[in-house]
Each structure stands twice: as structure tokens, then as C-alpha cells.
Amino acid sequence: MRPLSLPPVNSWNEWDPLREVVVGSAENSCFEPTEPGNKPTIRNSPGTPFPTGRKSKEAIDLANEELAGLVAVLESQGVTVRRPEPRNYASPIRTPDFEVKNQYCAVCPRDVLITIGNEILEATMSRRARYFEYQAYRSLVYQYWNADTRVAWTTAPKPSMADEMYREDFWAWPLEKRHAMMHSFEFCIHQNEVIFDAADISRFGTDILVQESMTTNRAGVRWLKRHLEPRGLRVHPVHFPLDLYPSHIDCTFVPLRPGLILTNPDRPLRDGEEKMFLANEWEFVEAPQPVLGNDEMPPYCQSSRWLSMNILSISPTKVICEEQETPLQRLLEKHGFEVLPIPFRNVFEYGGSLHCATWDVRREGNREDYFPHVAYQPLT
Description:
Layout: E1 18-23, H1 57-76, E2 80-82, E3 93-94, E4 99-100, H2 109-112, E5 113-116, E6 119-122, H3 138-147, E7 152-155, H4 175-182, E8 201-204, E9 207-211, H5 218-228, E10 234-238, E11 253-257, E12 260-263, H6 275-278, E13 283-286, E14 312-315, E15 318-322, H7 326-334, E16 338-342, E17 358-363
Parallel strand pairs: 1-2, 6-7, 9-10, 12-13, 15-16
Antiparallel strand pairs: 1-17, 3-4, 5-6, 8-9, 11-12, 14-15
């Protein structure tokens, strides 16, 4: 890896031309265990215990086949693709504060790592089974960091993930309490430790959106503001109050290119948070209803049907989309995009789709201000 005109790590937004990316792997994946931050259930089978331990070879092979298909499409577009190291996710985790019987997988690097400019930022993570998930990418991170002195690397403070970090009764809240609490944006994690998943972050050049969710709390947002504001970046917390189980912004609010955002009709922004976009002439376009209903999603998938929105931008005019989501493909084509459809349904079981399964390490372009008319109050 040689120094380039741009550093080998360079990505300021979600849409500039993609040059290098890490694509996840389903190798050695396990079912995510039940723990205070996650209570997985089987769709359409209430009361049936969720499986534990390793996933079947068939399920892993099907997911890996589709991930390999994504690699092939990216390479055909001139994108360099890297992969995580295989690891044994069946091994337990034991720390002074918690233990869990097995780990999860390395299908979704987007949850763990994010490139902000020339910096690699490792998220804290919010679930015990994913505490050490960064290890699958650590050798790659060292390669990028060693390749060029302009590359920065920050690991956010690791949380305790002790019992007191979570609201264990969250999963049993009745609907009335859930509606009341969601407007206070209180979910399964407390506010006393810094918690965030990288997939709750969306990059717009100088401006960074961070969703407050089940996987990112206000302390996590505050840490990101303190970390990024001294570099001249503006961090904006965003909220989607009709989402009862918010987790990761990339199935809810997806920037496609400067001035255009794909929005989720079931999850509007909190009143007032749209003003920064409207004041800067950004257009919101609603995603069509997904092809699959929630009951038709893979039985072990814990994500919503809005994985349909989880597309990957190769450039401001070209995107990769799940092949069965034809209504979304037509909408994107109507807005001037070339759409590359590929099968990806078998990856859904692993908690994500095309955007989740990638970490964009290098895109062309530099930091731009896409919100010149914005009132911003930094932390003091």
C-alpha cells in the first residue's frame, strides 16, 4: 500500500466515487445470543427458543455466496476490495463485568468501523457478543495506519457492558410505556456510559448525523461531538420518534448525493430536525414500500423489512440495490441513478444488507460544506 495523492483512508460522505472498501464475511458465524442489549426472536414463532451456537454450513455458504457476488460487482467497477480475517465466533467472552456464551460474526463491518475524513474510528459497540468484533479488522486497520502518516486511528472507550449499563426490563415494556418512553428516547441502554455503533452515523462532509437509538445513547453522541468538533466538523443528533426499536440510521435516512435523501415513510424525522435540510435546499424522496413484509423476512433476521433501503453508493450516479426491490430500483432510476441489482436476501439473517456489509475506506473527494445555511451550537 503506497501513499497516494489522497491518503489510503479518505471518505467524507456516503456518495463520492468509491475506490476501496471492506466487505464482510459470514465465515464461522454464530447466532447472536440473548443478552441484556438484545433479545432475538424467531419470526412468526412466538415462544420458540432462539437457536444458539454456530449457524449451519448451508446458511453460511448462502450468505458467503452473495457476499462474493457483491465483491465481484465492486471489482468490476474498479473498486479495491478487502476482507476481514476469519475468527472463531463460537468461543465465549468473559470479562470482569460480563460473560456471554458465544460471539456473532463479521458480516457487518459498517457497525464497527467508520471512516471520517482520513480517520478510522472504531465504535464502542453496544452488545456483549460484539465486544471483540473489531479484531477481525485489526490487521487491516494496522495496514492502513502504517501506510501513510496522514491516516489517524481512534478507538472509542470500551464500555463495561455490565448489567447496570442496560435496562433489562426494556424488552417487557407494554406498548403504552414504550410509546411514552420513545419520545424521551430512552431505550435498552442507560446514559451513564459512552455507547455508539458506527452504523448510527451518517456523513455529509463537514456535517455528521448521529441517530440516538438502542445502540447509540446521548453519552455516545456527546463523545462524538467532543472528538470531532475540534476538527471543524458539526455533529447533529437526529431522532425518529415513530421507530419503537431504532438501531442504525442506514435503513431510515439514506443520503444519495448532494441535495437528495432517501427517507423512510414510516419513520419521519422529529419535528424541527428537517429544518437544516430544507434551509439548504435538500430534497427528501420517500422510499417505496419494501417488497417483503415483516412476516416474510428470513425467520432468524432481527432487522426490519426496511433493509430494502440499505443500498450502497458507488458514486453520485450509481448504486447497488437488492435485486428483488424493483420499486426502489425504478425510483432511483427516475432520479438519474444507474442501478446495479444483486441478490442479497441470504445476508439479511446476519443483521444487514449492502450498506451494512461494507466499510468504505477510500472515496474520491475532500471535505465539503453541504449546509452553508445552518445554525449550529457546538459543545462548550
